[in-house]
Amino acid sequence: MAPKKPTPSPAAAPPSANRSQHTSASAAPSKPSASHSKTQTPQTTPSSTTSTSTTAPKLAQQINALTNTKTATALSKSAPRSVQEAQQILAEMWNSYVDKTAQRVKLLDTFMGFLVLVGVLQFVYCVIVGNYPFNAFLAGFSATVGQFVLTASLRMQTNPENEKEFRGTSDER
């Protein structure tokens, strides 16, 4: 009876041998040696390749056709309705704002919109060009934000709907 050969431990095996035992997503698979390449390479015939390659696109086309039909049907039923509803809601809000809001409040809203635009432009300029004099950007942006907050406070005080909360203040602030 022949003595058994000791099997090498994984630690004693060369690094290329360990790769096949411990695979991970980041480790590259090892290439098979020349002696094993003939046994591991599958033999394909041109007829099997063409039948698979023609079946897959046909199947994909059928799936896409069914999906697109269902999606188009669902969109044609729901999209125009929801878009029309959204437009109707926005139109009603705008008409209500124009009809019921006082002229002073509209003026303050316009100024607040201008302040938002200035703040956005300052920020975009800082991102694109750079903020070399950072103190200048910080001062300009914080002044814009501060002016917006003070204008919002003035808007709340001068709004006729909030008369009960601000009885002691005059309209000529």
UniProtKB/TrEMBL annotation:
Coarse class of the protein's main subcellular location: endoplasmic reticulum
Low complexity bias locations: 14-55
Residue stretches spanning the membrane: 110-130
Gene: OST2_1
Subunit field text: Component of the oligosaccharyltransferase (OST) complex.
Record's compositionally biased regions (Pro residues): 1-13
Keyword annotations from UniProtKB, A to Z: Endoplasmic reticulum, Membrane, Transmembrane, Transmembrane helix
The protein's role, per its UniProt record: Subunit of the oligosaccharyl transferase (OST) complex that catalyzes the initial transfer of a defined glycan (Glc(3)Man(9)GlcNAc(2) in eukaryotes) from the lipid carrier dolichol-pyrophosphate to an asparagine residue within an Asn-X-Ser/Thr consensus motif in nascent polypeptide chains, the first step in protein N-glycosylation. N-glycosylation occurs cotranslationally and the complex associates with the Sec61 complex at the channel-forming translocon complex that mediates protein translocation across the endoplasmic reticulum (ER). All subunits are required for a maximal enzyme activity.
GO cellular component: oligosaccharyltransferase complex
Family affiliation: Belongs to the DAD/OST2 family.
Lineage start: Eukaryota, Fungi, Dikarya, Ascomycota, Pezizomycotina
Locations listed in the record: Endoplasmic reticulum membrane
GO biological process, one term: protein N-linked glycosylation
Membrane-topology annotation of the record: Multi-pass membrane protein
Keyword Metal-binding: no
Stored InterPro entries: DAD/Ost2
UniProt name for this protein: Dolichyl-diphosphooligosaccharide--protein glycosyltransferase subunit OST2
Chain residue ranges for the region called Disordered: 1-57
